[in-house]
Amino acid sequence: MILCADIGGSFIDFAVVHPDGRTEHRRSVPTPLDNAPAFIGALVALCAPWPDMPLHIAIAGVECPDTGIIRAANIPCLQALPLSAHLRRETGRIVRIANDADCFALAEAHFGVAKGHRNVFGVILGTGIGGGFILDGRIVPGLGGVTGEWGHAPLVIPPPASHDQESAQALVPLFRCGCGISGCLDTIAGARALERLHLWAGGTPQTSRTILEAWQTGDRQAGRTLDIWLSYMGAGLAHVINVTGSTIVPVAGGLSNAHALVDALDEAVRARILTTTSGPLLRRAALGADAGLLGAACLGLDIRAQN
Ligand SMILES: [Zn+2]
Q1: Which residues surround ligand 1, an ion (CB under 5 A)?
Q2: What spacing in Å lies between the alpha carbon of 187 and ligand 1's midpoint?
Q3: Which CATH superfamily is domain 113-285 in?
């Protein structure tokens, strides 16, 4: 059995996970956001019934491999805190931490839709976009703890004039991204960004859900917005596929509930990659909200395999 926690900006989900993916002793407590001792205390209390077992954590943040400090924009109390070392000191147990998008991709590779694939790039289309790259069943560690962040880098530049003279050239602005760069895919990709893109492209204020519904019923304005979205997202993800050699892309997050959007993005990606595939590359993820916990469990399975 493996102790796992999935730490987000709202809740800490906890479970004891079996190697086959079954979970028990599930708990969910609010994440203490501004109080580091309360945050540590919550984790210590959740694990207390299993004093000697390692703890594996999926977190909405990035652990610096050199300092152990977590960068998590939504959990301010973690600022400057080397969480795993702190927990190890408090509890005497081994603690291993990974980014939650990486854990989602890892879980899908072990238990979900990407089972059996060597190169897996998991994509989250949520409020923003995220990703995780899995090779041979393991998270690929990266510079500063970062891999799979395909949403950030200035990629949204005006397309060539011949591309879509009517709409695209003047319509896609260099929005400033939360990461500090302007023109990241993340500025047009997620649910809120899609709503902003729709407004910018001449649409009326709508939720991402109603924009997608209108698109599917053939609405011309929503069609223009989605043409722009698919063009940029398809290009960005095609680049990722060419670089990582991924043979499957599990897709999760709120926008993935629109099946037609995942299908259309798959088509846009496959039209832009260097190779051809007989079937879809993008597949809706299988594990839902449990992916973080199950991915954390995979970190534990990996440690066992190494010993
Ligand atoms: Zn960015």
Answers
A1: 152, 177, 179, 181, 184, 186
A2: 7
A3: ATPase, nucleotide binding domain (3.30.420.40)
